[in-house]
Amino acid sequence: xxxxxxxxxxxxxxxxxxxxxxxxxxxxxxxxxxxxxxxxxxxxxxxxxxxxxxxxxxxxxxxxxxxxxxxxxxxxxxxxxxxxxxxxxxxxxxxxxxxxxxxxxxxxxxxxxx
Amino acid sequence: xxxxxxxxxxxxxxxxxxxxxxxxxxxxxxxxxxxxxxxxxxxxxxxxxxxxxxxxxxxxxxxxxxxxxxxxxxxxxxxxxxxxxxxxxxxxxxxxxxxxxxxxxxxxxxxx
Lengths: 114, 112
Known about the structure:
Chain A is an all-beta fold. Chain A contains no helices and eleven strands. Chain A has strands at about 5, 10-15, 20-25, 30-35, 45-50, 55, 70, 75-80, 90-95, 105, 110-114. In chain A, strands 2, 4, 5, 6, 9, 10 and 11 form a seven-stranded mixed beta sheet that branches. A four-stranded antiparallel beta sheet of chain A has the order 1-3-8-7, with no helix packed on it. In chain A, a hairpin with a 2-residue loop joins strand 7 (about 70) and strand 8. Chain A starts with a strand and ends with a strand. Chain B is mostly beta strands. Chain B contains no helices and eleven strands. Chain B has strands spanning about 10-15, 20-25, 35-40, 45-50, 55, 60-65, 70-75, 85-90, 90-95, 95-100, 105-110. In chain B, strands 1-11-8-3-4 form a five-stranded mixed beta sheet, with no helix packed on it. A four-stranded antiparallel beta sheet of chain B has the order 2-7-6-5, with no helix packed on it. The relative contact order of chain B is 0.34. The model of chain B has no long low-confidence stretch (mean pLDDT about 90). The chains are: A mainly beta, B mainly beta. Chains A and B meet through strand 4, strand 5, strand 9 and strand 10 of A and strand 4 and strand 10 of B.
């Protein structure tokens, strides 16, 4: 299994500002993913964070709004840029090792934009 | 990519078995069925997965029909702590990038 630490666990931000969320894993992992969960909704995949290359974004998500870094096999960051109230969500980091795909999730970052 | 259909909500009495159905009629031969759950205010938690055969672990059992078009997750003795949203997911694999696509899931409420 993998232990995932996300920081911050929650934040309240002013519109127009940016927030960087950190995801630290206790072991080296191949795949890291970022999800968004809007209030009362299911999880939506934002992007796959690739080590050593640019992130792969899902339809509807762009790098300018959600820049991602993946400097090594245990760490990634997601930035929510130029925030608006519609960005108020829980943002979750997920990791998976090689082989059969079994994902582990962080506890999430609860973001409120005012 | 195979889609899944689950009931929006279900109730179960504490101590009884909870049987959560999932339809995945467009599943392809090499796609796995995964189950995750999300307890309120927590990240999703892996429960079990399977390809063709029935599977059992310490948390649950997974029954997959012979034609693989549907499956059932069984929690043999549900407790109040099993109250959560349960997601049935068919594994996606595109261009070597393994990812999970979550549907709306089933909100299971275990009642005392």
